[in-house]
Write a structure and sequence with these properties.
Elements: H1 2-11, E1 15-16, H2 21-29, H3 31-35, E2 39-40, H4 45-52, H5 54-63, E3 71-72, H6 80-87, E4 91-94, E5 111-114, H7 117-127, E6 135-138, E7 143-152, E8 155-168, E9 171-178, H8 182-195, E10 199-207, E11 214-220, H9 227-233, H10 237-247, E12 261-263, H11 265-276, H12 290-299, E13 305-307, H13 316-324, H14 326-333
Parallel strand pairs: 1-2, 12-13
Antiparallel strand pairs: 3-6, 4-5, 4-6, 7-8, 7-10, 8-9, 9-12, 10-11
Helix pairs in contact: 4-5, 11-12
Length: about 350
């Protein structure tokens, strides 16, 4: 943080925007010190804590009547049969917050799935210490719907939805901007109002394919992975953040390009490799087969799909994206990837 403060002071930076959960945590921890030299583009400490700690966040959502996955609080291993009877299989294990957050229990995973009692016990034995357990939830299946929001004083002033067509470790890598479902917008409005939220937020839901059932997943108090997709479609969330926190200007959204497609091609490639190695399909809730999955991956390079990173006019960010992950990619390619 010394480095960040020195950079802010030396360059007279007027506004600091945290981008990741880790930087949100760091900025919040040193909020007073940073705020002495610059303006911070982030919500209040109480609002942030109510988002970063998933235990608090899910309780707020349930209290508001927002549908959430069934949850079980495990206190003893003897309760495992009861938990399976309550949640069904597979059981989802989620960490309650970022592992660097000292206010929540730390776990070395983000999300795990247990498809049997034996697998569940093995995962608990491997990742948990006695008496310290993550969140246990029922497995919500269907399409992931992501609402990209801007709120001012708890009032929702802009929201669009994108559909994660393919995902990598829970994050959307190939996405399509669609009309927001009215009920999801209503849930989001109620939640951000209860939080008295300021600035950007990313709110995620699972929706079954019949559109008859919804499960609230989480709220992220930061920019989402495909902010570039939002800007490409016509809404400049970073620009709005600058104007709101520095000049008090509330955004007035203009037209939005519905159906806009964006892709993080490297993430899409890694998701495909994971599928070849036996992991879940990149397309949530489907099993397309490896040949079809490969063809779907190639189709994302058509001209109508906007790249998150690569530009012909400025290719170096895209090149560096691959270069920084070269060892990880080499590890994937070093394994036998068989189409079947």
């Amino acid at each position: 943080m010394e480095f960040a403060v020195d950079v802010i002071k030396k360059n007279e930076i007027q506004l600091a925007m945290p981008i990741t959960d880790q930087t949100v945590l760091a900025f919040d921890h040193y909020r007073d010190r940073l705020a002495a030299h610059t303006t911070l583009a982030m919500a209040s400490p109480k609002a942030l804590r109510s988002v970063l700690d998933k235990r608090i966040n899910l309780k707020i959502a349930r209290d508001l009547g927002i549908p959430c996955p069934k949850q079980f609080e495990l206190r003893s291993l003897e309760q495992i049969p009861e938990m399976i009877a309550t949640l069904g299989l597979p059981v989802v294990m989620k960490r309650p917050g970022d592992p660097i957050d000292p206010t929540v229990p730390a776990f070395d995973f983000r999300v795990l799935y247990a498809h049997s009692e034996a697998e569940l016990r093995a995962l608990i034995d491997k990742h948990c210490t006695p008496g310290q357990y993550p969140l246990f939830q029922e497995c919500a299946v269907g399409e992931v719907h992501n609402l990209c929001c801007f709120a001012a004083g708890g009032e929702l002033v802009a929201v669009h939805e994108y559909h994660s067509i393919r995902r990598l470790e829970g994050a959307g890598v190939y996405r399509k901007i669609v009309e927001p479902l009215p009920d999801l917008v209503g849930y989001t409005r109620d939640l951000l109002k209860a939080l008295k939220w300021d600035g950007v937020a990313h709110v995620a839901f699972f929706v079954d394919r019949s559109r008859n059932k919804v499960w609230y997943m989480e709220t992220n108090g930061r920019f989402w992975a495909s902010t570039e997709g939002s800007v490409h479609a016509g809404w400049d969330f970073p620009g709005w953040t600058y104007d709101y926190f520095l000049h008090g200007k509330v955004p007035v959204p203009g037209p939005l390009k519905m159906g806009s497609l964006t892709c993080w091609h490297l993430g899409d490639l890694m998701a495909l490799f994971n599928y070849f190695r036996g992991f879940e399909s990149p397309a949530t809730g489907t099993s397309p087969g490896k040949l079809r999955a490969a063809l779907q991956f190639l189709a994302a390079y058509r001209p109508t799909v906007h790249s998150d990173v690569f530009r012909w006019s400025d290719p170096m960010p895209g090149v560096m994206d691959y270069w920084q992950r070269r060892r990880q990619l080499a590890g994937f390619l070093g394994k036998r990837l068989r189409l079947g």
